[in-house]
């Protein structure tokens, strides 16, 4: 059932109060340290010195001069944050009082307010197996509130997932380097595997990518509750399972663990920092941990 206008506004206000407070008290300084320092523009080249980061070596100049040289960068005065938000069918799952959609919305709001406090622009891309909506980057509180409103009320055309479409679109529309958060359960279509790998490589060569994986505990393991019918939120497929069988529960948990490890490996391979957040957990703790590791 669709929410009416007053319900949506009340939810926007409630999320604003909670997430803006968290951003003010906890994340503002950590955001600046973790992400503003990554927004750098090329300035000059100089000879390598002991202690320099080898990742900054300019191999072309090094080859021409026969001496190692590194690139020097200066911090950009203004950064852009892009939020890539998964709006596919699986985000509507939740075995507790909070669905994955609710957690994603709150995290997106916290990140947006943190960026706004640092006078950065914030843009948003809603995606399923296509780009559903693009909100161009802008500054200001009214812009952030508009994004939150869309996070609450937006209804996608498709229920499926293809993350590569959003990453590729972001690369095309973002001409300057930006910090990009992919907020998703990463239940991506297997058919999108190669396309996603390619899209992440291209985007990662220019932009600072961060993965926020939101999941529900019941996706990781099944309780012993007898025979149940499970439905795939994205394809509509249904299957009956006897959860009283230990082998069934173990197979289910093993399958989830293997899929999860494949996702982690993909993100590690492309040097994408990641936070894994449960609908039952405290996303504040996980976000602070993510910020510190950067």
Structure, described:
This protein has 294 residues and is of the alpha/beta class. It has helices at residues 5-35, 59-65, 100-117, 141-153, 163-173, 193-204, 217-220, 246-269, 283-293, and strands at 40-47, 69-75, 80-86, 121-127, 131-138, 179-184, 208-215, 227-231, 238-242, 273-278. The strands form three sheets. The protein has a six-stranded mixed beta sheet with strand order 5-4-3-6-7-10, with helices on both faces. The chain has a two-stranded antiparallel sheet with strand order 1-2. Helix 1 (5-35) packs parallel to helix 9 (283-293) and helix 3 (100-117) runs antiparallel to helix 4 (141-153). 32% of the residues are buried.
């Amino acid at each position: 059932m669709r929410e009416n206008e007053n319900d949506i506004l009340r939810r926007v206000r409630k999320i604003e109060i909670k997430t803006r407070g968290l951003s003010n008290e906890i994340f503002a300084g950590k955001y600046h340290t973790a992400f503003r320092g990554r927004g750098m523009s090329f300035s000059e080249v100089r000879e390598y010195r002991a202690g320099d980061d080898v990742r900054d070596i300019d191999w072309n100049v090094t080859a021409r001069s026969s001496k190692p040289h590194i690139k020097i960068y200066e911090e950009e005065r203004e950064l852009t944050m892009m939020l890539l938000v998964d709006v596919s069918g699986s985000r509507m799952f939740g075995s507790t009082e909070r669905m994955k959609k609710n957690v994603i919305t709150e995290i997106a709001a916290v990140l947006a307010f943190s960026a706004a406090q640092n006078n950065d622009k914030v843009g948003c891309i809603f995606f399923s197996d296509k780009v559903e909506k693009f909100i161009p980057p802008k500054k200001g509180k009214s812009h952030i509130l508009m994004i939150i409103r869309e996070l609450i009320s937006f209804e996608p055309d498709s229920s499926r997932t293809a993350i590569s479409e959003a990453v590729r679109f972001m690369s095309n529309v973002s001409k300057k380097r930006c910090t990009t958060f992919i907020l998703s359960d990463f239940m991506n279509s297997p058919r999108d595997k190669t396309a996603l790998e390619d899209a992440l490589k291209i985007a990662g060569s220019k932009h600072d990518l961060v993965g926020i994986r939101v999941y529900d505990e019941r996706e990781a393991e099944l309780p012993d509750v007898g025979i149940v019918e499970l439905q795939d939120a994205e394809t509509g497929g249904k299957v009956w399972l006897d959860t009283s069988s230990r082998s069934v529960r173990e197979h289910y948990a093993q399958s989830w663990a293997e899929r999860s490890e494949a996702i982690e490996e993909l993100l590690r391979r492309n040097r994408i920092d990641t936070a894994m957040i449960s609908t039952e957990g405290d996303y504040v703790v996980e976000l602070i941990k993510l910020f510190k590791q950067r």
